[in-house]
Amino acid sequence: MLQAATGKLFTELHNPQVNTLRGVVYTNLDLSSVHTFSSAVGTLSALETVTTPHALCYELNEHIEGGPAEGLLASRMIGAYIDDFADVASFALRAIFSPDVRIAERLLHLRTRVGEPHPSERLTRFYEPSLRASNEEMEVFGTFTEQLIGLKRSSYQSVIKAIRSYVAAVHRMSDNLDLAYTLLVMSIESLAQDFDGYVVVWEDMPSEKRGSIDKILETFQVEDAQALRYAILETEHLRLGHRFSKFIQEYLPPDYYSELASKEKHPIGNRELLSALKNLYGTRSDYVHTLKPLTKEFLNFSGHAETYADHDKLMFTFQGLFRLVRAVIMEFVRRADKISHEPCSYEYDNPGVLRISLCPSMWIYAPIHLTAETCPQFFEGLVGLISQALEEFPHKPLMNLGPVVEAGFRIKDGLKKPSKLALLAFIYLKQNFLGGEQGESLLKESDVMLLNQPGLVSLISQAITGSDTEWLPSEHLRYLSGYYAQCFKPTGIKVPLLVEACMALALVERYRVAGQFQDAKEALAAAVEDFPRLPCMREVQLDPETSVNWIDIIYPKRAQGRIPT
């Protein structure tokens, strides 16, 4: 949210509301020589530097789009910004920063296990009890934050993710070295996959796989063979390690082996770096896929040098990898395109904002919302409200849906089949559970015939009304399986768990009626496993001569007749 606070993402730039927010960060960076420092992401000033961790005041001018009269949001408060600021400061200044004093204390007063080296023996600077801030370091921090805020939104978000991963690695150095090493690699990997610009070619396919495919393609026409190769490449994640290595080399700062190296005790050389890069991505993959740990020799003997020869394999040490990752990220930020104004939707990045779905009762009674596009949502919403009304009968009455039904009749004949089916099912359920009102239109016979054809909407409608579909069991199973295949897709229909259970028990009844009793038993056993949250499913007694009344099983509180309005 740091970028949003500046106002560069606003649609309207005039007359923003400005709030001055303050918070406290705890750190081992001593600002006594600087006292106060302003940057593009806020101002730091010393509060208390006698004890460790030091307490610093963090102040930020928060810009809010529009005045208080134009919306409810007066401020996001400091909590929306201070965590990101702590990560950026920790990354850029190579120090511990946290708004939580307990985290800062834990990292700065570590008690290592017997025989375990202190993290400072693997990584310099970060864990020193107190670091004196120099003017040069603060100037670098100021330049970096200005470049960071200037990034395009997509670049900024990717860089912040990489920085968070980097800082998480700092925090894990005391308890999980394997995870810390992997987090460092992943911080660069996330940038590489988003911005490396690498175009995969057929030669990138592993030779053993490419050879067998090429042999088959010899029988194809040249154009068809090439089209198939392109299709394969679109679905293959090829040579990720190669792309990762190329990205690092591309964004290695020009002075990495000169000026930047002069500040290190044991800097890495170009040939060493290229050699260690070949093993870096594989080390990450070994841990991610098989939890293969770093060797004990590496953990015990790799110190402040930037490489270590581990069983004849040259490896980046923690010291070398932390420096490499930080340098690459900072160089990426320096080179990336900058923009002063980029209107976009940014509020969801606020950690205090969550997306929730409104209860259908908040919108389903408004005819103005019923359109060709929203018919499936209206059907889904009504199924949810009916299920809730049956479950808590008679304490969840429904309101009058007559105006919505009449609005549906006005658009019905011009709808495409999927939307029309959803609308017909909506009208059918309303009239079934709430009854028709005087003067209300009724479904035509052709509409009823269309609705009764095998399909997902019909399956759901008949399941919640307690009606047997009278389809072949194979048809019922087909659409029940199809429901689960689509229910979590953006355009899919998702009904409550109790309605899903109705559909499952309706399949059991279909098998029983068809005389397939063994299939009915297997379908019931599967339903019990699919709905462990519903004890009633385990109580179903299956008998060849007794029908499965799933509505009474799933909704025992319901009464005969209409849902109250």
Q: Describe it for me?
A:
By secondary structure, this protein is α+β, with helices and mostly antiparallel strands. Among the domains are: 1-151, no CATH class; 361-554, no CATH class. 49% of the residues lie in helices and 8% in strands. It has helices at residues 2-5, 82-93, 101-108, 135-150, 153-172, 177-195, 207-217, 222-235, 240-250, 270-290, 296-301, 318-335, 375-391, 402-412, 417-433, 445-452, 456-465, 473-486, 497-513, 517-530, 535-538, 550-554; strands at residues 17-27, 29-30, 36-39, 42-48, 54-64, 97-98, 131-132, 307-310, 313-316. The longest helix is centred in the middle third of the chain and has 21 residues, at 270-290. The radius of gyration is 32 Å and the shape is globular. The two termini are 46 Å apart. The relative contact order is 0.07. The mean pLDDT is 88.
Give the structure's gist in a few sentences.
The chain is of the alpha+beta class and 565 residues long. It contains 22 helices and 9 strands.
Which tags fit this structure?
565 residues; 5-stranded antiparallel sheet; two-stranded parallel sheet; 9 strands
List the SSEs and their pairings.
Blueprint: H1 2-5, E1 17-27, E2 29-30, E3 36-39, E4 42-48, E5 54-64, H2 82-93, E6 97-98, H3 101-108, E7 131-132, H4 135-150, H5 153-172, H6 177-195, H7 207-217, H8 222-235, H9 240-250, H10 270-290, H11 296-301, E8 307-310, E9 313-316, H12 318-335, H13 375-391, H14 402-412, H15 417-433, H16 445-452, H17 456-465, H18 473-486, H19 497-513, H20 517-530, H21 535-538, H22 550-554
Parallel strand pairs: 2-7
Antiparallel strand pairs: 1-5, 1-6, 3-4, 4-5, 8-9
